[in-house]
Amino acid sequence: MSKRGAFIVIEGLDRSGKSTQTALLLSRLESARIPAKLLKFPDRTTAIGKMIDSYLKSQSDLDDHAIHLLFSANRWELASSIEHLLAAGTTVVCDRYAFSGIAFSASKGLPYEWCRAPDVSLPAPDLAVFLDITPEAAKARGGYGEERYEKEEMQRRVREVFRRIGEEIKGSGLGAWVWVDAGREKGVVAEEVWGHVELLARGVEGPLCRLWTDEIPA
Ligand code: Z5A
Ligand code: MG
């Protein structure tokens, strides 16, 4: 039976190095001659993505529930292409995914279960790598920018929700979730990320799971 591509998600706090690490991972996969594609959420190029971009830059205002649903819709827009890529044997590396959706909206005070609901049954990653960094260390990397949510207090709450999501994923048997100390030098972090990804990237035999649908109770 031919293997499918692996679905790898890189999550983490602001400035934890997600974009840096996803780019390094992609070149490493390419050097190993493993077909790979990099995706990023939010994908600001689609019509929905443009609304999200305008909101994040504070050029428009939206109800918290409405923006949450737009972030989720932005993932659903790409769900079938993710499935096709994986089925064709391409490894998909994703810079943020549904876990960011829950973490940020729940940190604003929306109920956790409500935040999770629109992402239920999206393609589930085979591996989620969480780049962990203290809000203080993240701030030292040039400080927070101009976009919404880039405030230390918000990042602290987001980190707590990510911790809950990670524990639940680990306890459910739905893919794997690993924590990586992202406060270290880029190359050291990249080496650890590669250690988690390498075997999976050689191809996955089992079927693709669906987020919080194919959950195996602990
Ligand atoms: N959001 C949401 O609310 N709901 C959702 O469903 C989704 C997202 C998907 C925009 O996301 C916002 O959308 C985000 C969450 C929310 N809001 N916040 N906060 P985004 O992904 O577009 O945000 P971003 O601006 O691309 O990424 P980022 O998180 O700020 O950064 P990063 O990708 O993690 O880090 P980086 O760009 O790789 O590195 C940051 C800097 O640190 C850069 O100068 C690097 O050179 C440096 N760096 C990286 N690694 C290191 C190490 N190891 N040492 C020293 N310096 C380093
Ligand atoms: Mg980034």
Automatic annotation (TrEMBL):
CDD domains associated with the record: TMPK (cd01672)
GO terms of molecular function: ATP binding; dTMP kinase activity; nucleoside diphosphate kinase activity
Biological process annotations from GO: dTDP biosynthetic process; dTTP biosynthetic process; dUDP biosynthetic process
Enzyme Commission number(s) from the entry: 2.7.4.9
Superkingdom of the organism of origin: Eukaryota
Signal peptide interval: none
Domain named Thymidylate kinase-like: residues: 10-192
Family matches, as HAMAP family: Thymidylate_kinase (MF_00165)
Name of the protein in its database record: Thymidylate kinase
Organism, scientific name: Lyophyllum shimeji
Biological classification of the source: Eukaryota, Fungi, Dikarya, Basidiomycota, Agaricomycotina
